[in-house]
């Protein structure tokens, strides 16, 4: 008996040493995987930041180019208008001076020269847009910011959920599994008419009489089945109690 106990003890030591070796290897592998994930995340976020910096510069350049073009156009028109106004004032002064002359021949000769066009003609009438601004650009950029923030929030939730699923040890006991427990409720829109839901849609009973459920495209009509409302992903654990036979849980 002592020999058997010794062999059993040696076997247990070997099993524990094997478990210790596996655990160390798994921990080392996890560390390497985490480091690789951190480095990839840093690289990807750096690329994203650079990409946003380029887009920011592009938008800034677009705005500045349009600003320069419109300001340059306005300045040219301002210069032409100032020249036209100065010319009109000069002619007006000459006409005012001619109006006081008593030499009619001189008046007619001078009047024709004063009224003769001195250039290519007056500028066409200019209509200024008083509501011109870059407010629409600011609005679009703000909307882009909100959409990107929503996308980032949604993706960050997915990333967090994925990170939380990384486990070294496989659950073995009920206490281990309970950390993955989730509360499920049954979806009345999918329940077969021979199934009665109760207890806040957390209990289902197969009955012999059709229930007065409204029509729904997702309702089972062949097999007495019902789905849960919650969608599950990754490792999940739940417990169920049942009485009777002919029951299946998936």
TrEMBL record:
GO terms for molecular function: zinc ion binding. PROSITE patterns: B302_SPRY. Residues 1-36 are annotated as: Disordered. Residues 9-22 have a biased composition (Basic and acidic residues). Pfam families: PRY (PF13765), TRIM_CC (PF25600). Keywords: Metal-binding, Zinc, Zinc-finger. Residues 23-34 have a biased composition (Polar residues). Residues 164-250 form the B30.2/SPRY domain. InterPro entries: B30.2/SPRY (IPR001870), B30.2/SPRY_sf (IPR043136), ConA-like_dom_sf (IPR013320), E3_ubiq-ligase_TRIM/RNF (IPR051051), PRY (IPR006574), TRIM8/14/16/25/29/45/65_CC (IPR058030). The keyword Metal-binding applies. GO terms for cellular component: cytoplasm. Signal peptide: none annotated. This is B30.2/SPRY domain-containing protein. The lineage of its organism: Eukaryota, Metazoa, Chordata, Craniata, Vertebrata.
């Amino acid at each position: 008996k002592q020999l058997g106990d010794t062999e059993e003890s040696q076997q247990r030591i070997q099993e524990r040493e094997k478990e210790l070796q596996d655990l160390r290897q798994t921990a080392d592998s996890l560390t390497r995987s985490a480091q690789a994930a951190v480095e990839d995340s840093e690289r990807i976020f750096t690329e994203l930041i650079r990409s946003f910096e380029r887009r920011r510069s592009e938008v800034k350049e677009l705005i500045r180019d349009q600003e320069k073009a419109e300001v340059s156009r306005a300045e040219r028109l301002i210069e032409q208008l100032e020249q036209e106004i100065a010319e009109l004032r000069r002619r007006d002064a000459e006409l005012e001076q001619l109006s006081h002359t008593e030499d009619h021949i001189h008046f007619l000769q001078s009047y024709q020269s004063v009224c003769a066009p001195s250039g290519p003609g007056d500028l066409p009438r200019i209509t200024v847009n008083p509501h011109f601004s870059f407010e629409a650009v600011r609005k679009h950029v703000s909307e882009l910011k909100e959409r990107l923030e929503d996308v980032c929030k949604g993706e960050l939730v997915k990333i967090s959920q994925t990170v939380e699923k990384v486990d070294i040890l496989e659950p073995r006991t009920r206490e281990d599994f309970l950390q993955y427990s989730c509360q499920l409720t049954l979806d009345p829109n999918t329940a077969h008419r021979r199934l009665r839901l109760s207890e806040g849609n957390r209990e289902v009973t197969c009955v012999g009489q059709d229930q007065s459920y409204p029509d729904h495209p997702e309702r089972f009509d062949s097999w007495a089945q019902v789905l849960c409302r919650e969608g599950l992903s990754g490792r999940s654990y739940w417990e169920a109690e049942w009485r009777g036979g002919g029951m299946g849980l998936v």
